[in-house]
From TrEMBL:
It comes from the Bacteria. Residues 329-454 form the Glycosyltransferase 2-like domain. This is Glycosyltransferase 2-like domain-containing protein.
Length: 761
């Protein structure tokens, strides 16, 4: 997004660039304007919708992911640093005023072209007694409150029915959809009167409105619900939540009702008090239509949008550093790295920044070559000291430095030529920032980009989201107790960011790759940090306990996810190793031939998931007996076997499931009667011929669904099959003809193995 907009602005002048805050689409662009003065002649506007941070709360989600916190941070950043922010509702503007401290958010409704067909409606009895909620099925829409209100109404007036129209967009917890969860709230005797009508095409929604009297929207919170305005424009009697923007649309008691979304009695009482009063219904309908026209008048809305765009905003005077560039001190700790240090110094000297000093600290190098290289360094400030570690060397260099800005650079890393200039300009023009980081390019043993997002307080104690070791700091930050922690053997740069945050110092990230981080296996990361990672992180968390306390609950929830996901991956990897070694029925041969992949899924939560599967490889164009241990005891006892991962011919002679504890066969299918107990999906053609199950596969995911067994059993699956990704339908006869010779050969091999075993015994 940032790159595209930058190219557009280079070609022509753009007055306004507008982003939604949701998803953080303007994040890099807004950051670039703040730190680089890009888009100086364009006004960057954020129009609020409903941010991820608010959705998480009102959807009452019980799951947190790393991406969740990244989303919250990026959206907050966009709102905080945009040139202008507009919001359809006052409610959402107030949310962000409290969240990020922005108090100049301007109100501006969405433009809508409504039909306004609700003039002088006369409701039929059917319309009055059919109450509808039209919207997606998710927690925040208040489906549960709607159902409870419906039950209360029907108990007093059995002629009512209540309908929920919309697709299920609720995140399924533990395999249950939100529709299924809400259906449990409906008493059995009311199942025909409270119904989930399902998704509805947008083109059919007007017909629902015209056939409705009461439309209920008990949302936990809404920004600016278009469906509420649409219902009003058709003259429906709207019961709208008091939480969020709908309360600003509806004039309570005049053009609808404002209700408590958590109080079903509030909804029920308003319906029961109004449904028999035809005159009141007619007046409410007229006023609803009038109010929707008033809110959504296109000319009025367009004028409001344009006036916002034209409103003056503070244009920042960007201070250049030409002719008065402050001194930057680059601190290079040096310990036994003679092969790298000259390259690091050279990268600093290639900088286009005119005023810098290089301070190299020899931290007690022990090698003669390392000492000689240090002595030969020229045009740098040289400091020698006893070995005290990386933090000690950096601190010594900072104390000796004369610069207004400090930039630590490890002796094996490199700077891009523009880093110093861009970093100083960003700090000079943003006095509220104490330091800046940047994007990083890893090179050496592996090459990829590291993109720090910024200081995410819920993650920083255990995941560094805010930059590597090469940040640029204001010199005055290093005073009193603010230094690199000399006790730590690694992660000292990460710890310093936590210390600065403790003291209220803010930093930001230059959106450009300006630092090159050498990855080699004799670096401290591999020799020290990786082995001590858990101890180092716990040390930091305890050290900064007071600052972390407000986020402790979310950290605990997030750490539980990371821990368990890692545990699952390790168990899965371990099982793959077991399968690779133990599954084949050929002496001394692993399941790794032409890579026909066979995969077994265990059903959990009503579905088959990748993380709940194991797989093995068999050789193509050969008969094989595949035996796989199923580490799924205690789940649903339903398995799915995917015999191949490519088009071709699959021939199955036998499928057996064996109890691992008793070695008893739970089922064995090797003829037409047995195979008929399996359901088969994904293959273009399925047939049973001469006792063989034949799949002619044109896709890449044929599935054999096996019958259910007791969920407490630990078992193993044995399959005799032939897979050929080159065969055609005409080859089946040849394939079947090779089975018996393979079986005799396999039987002979088994006898030989038993004889060998006995002779060794």
């Amino acid at each position: 997004m940032y790159d595209t907009l930058r190219h557009l602005v280079e070609r022509s002048s753009i007055d306004i660039i507008e982003f939604a805050e949701f998803g953080g689409e303007g994040f890099a662009t807004i950051r670039a304007k703040r730190l680089f003065n890009d888009f100086a002649d364009s006004k960057l506007v954020v129009k609020l919708h409903t941010p991820a941070s608010l959705l998480f709360r009102i959807n009452e989600d019980r799951r947190l992911h790393l991406d969740s916190f990244y989303d919250y941070y990026m959206e907050d950043y966009c709102v905080k640093h945009a040139d202008m922010v507009t919001s359809p509702s006052r409610s959402l503007g107030s949310y962000y005023a409290d969240r990020v401290g922005r108090n100049d958010i301007r109100q501006c409704p969405y433009p809508m072209d409504l039909p306004h067909k609700g003039f002088d409606r006369v409701f039929t009895e059917k319309q009055i007694f059919t109450v509808r909620l039209i919207g997606s099925v998710q927690v925040r829409k208040g489906i549960d409150t709607f159902i409870r209100a419906a039950v209360e109404v029907i108990r007093q007036e059995p002629r009512f029915t209540f309908e929920i129209w919309g697709a299920d967009r609720g995140a399924a917890l533990f395999g249950s959809s939100y529709t299924e969860t809400c259906r449990r709230l409906i008493p059995e005797e009311f199942r025909d009167q409270i119904v989930f009508a399902g998704p509805v095409p947008y083109s059919e929604i007007p017909g629902l409105f015209l056939d409705s009297c009461f439309c209920v929207y008990p949302s936990r919170w809404e920004n600016w619900a278009n469906v509420c305005l649409e219902a009003m424009s058709y003259g429906c009697i709207v019961l709208a939540s008091k939480e969020g923007g709908m309360s600003e649309m509806v004039e309570h008691g005049r053009s609808g009702f404002v209700i408590d979304p958590l109080d079903p009695h509030d909804i029920a009482s308003k319906i029961l008090a109004t449904y028999q009063d035809a005159a009141a219904l007619a007046e409410l309908s007229r006023q609803a239509s009038r109010r929707s026209r008033e809110i959504c008048d296109p000319e009025r809305t367009a004028h409001k949008i344009e006036s916002n765009y034209r409103a003056p905003s503070i244009r920042r005077e960007w201070q250049g550093i030409e002719g008065r560039a402050p001194l930057v001190s680059v601190i290079i700790p040096y310990f036994n790295q003679p092969q790298y240090v000259q390259e690091a110094i050279s990268s600093v000297r290639k900088s286009n920044y005119p005023n810098l000093e290089i301070v190299v600290v020899n931290d007690g190098s022990t090698g003669e070559d390392a000492r000689n290289v240090f002595q030969q360094l020229a045009e740098v400030v040289k400091i020698e000291k006893k070995n005290g570690g990386l933090s000690s060397a950096r601190n010594s260099g900072i104390r000796a430095a004369k610069g207004d800005f400090i930039l630590p650079l490890d002796a094996d890393d490199l700077l891009e030529p523009t880093y110093l200039e861009k970093g100083v300009a960003a700090l000079v023009n943003n006095p509220d920032l104490g330091y800046v980081s940047c994007h990083t390019q890893n090179f050496g043993e592996f090459n990829n980009a590291y993109i720090p997002i910024g200081y995410v307080p819920e993650l920083m104690p255990y995941i560094n989201t805010h930059g590597k070791c090469c940040n640029m700091y204001r010199r005055e930050l290093f005073a009193d107790e603010t230094w690199y922690d000399e006790v730590m053997t690694s992660y000292e740069d990460w710890d310093l960011l936590l210390t600065l945050h403790d003291k209220g110092v803010e930093g930001d990230v230059l959106p450009d790759e300006l630092f090159n981080y050498r990855r080699h296996f004799d670096s401290m990361v591999y020799t020290t940090a990786n082995r001590q990672r858990a101890d180092l992180i716990q040390y930091m968390m305890i050290k900064h306990e007071k600052t972390l306390a407000p986020h402790a609950a979310q950290m605990a929830v997030m750490l539980a996810r990371l821990w368990k996901e890692t545990e699952i991956r390790e168990e899965h990897a371990e099982q793959q190793v077991v399968n690779l070694v133990n599954a084949p029925n050929r002496f001394g041969e692993l399941q790794w031939g032409d890579k026909i992949r066979c995969q077994i899924y265990s059903r959990t939560g009503g579905g088959f998931w990748e993380h709940n599967s194991i797989y093995a490889y068999i050789k193509a164009r050969k008969w094989s007996r595949l035996v796989i241990s199923l580490p799924f005891a205690g789940q649903e006892g339903v398995f799915r076997f995917d015999p191949c991962n490519a088009p071709g011919i699959v021939v199955v002679k036998e499928i057996s499931l064996i109890d691992k504890k008793t070695e008893r066969c739970l089922y064995r299918f090797n003829d037409a009667k047995g195979f008929s107990r399996c359901s088969i999906e994904g293959a273009s053609e399925t047939r049973i011929q001469d006792g063989f199950l034949i799949l002619v596969v044109t896709g890449n995911d044929p599935q054999i669904h096996l019958p259910q067994v007791a969920s407490s059993r630990a078992s193993k699956l044995s399959v005799v099959l032939y897979c050929d990704d080159r065969a055609e339908l005409s080859d089946i006869g040849m394939i079947l003809g090779t089975y018996h010779s393979w079986r005799r050969s396999a039987s002979s091999t088994q006898k030989l193995k038993r004889l060998l075993f006995r002779s060794k015994g």
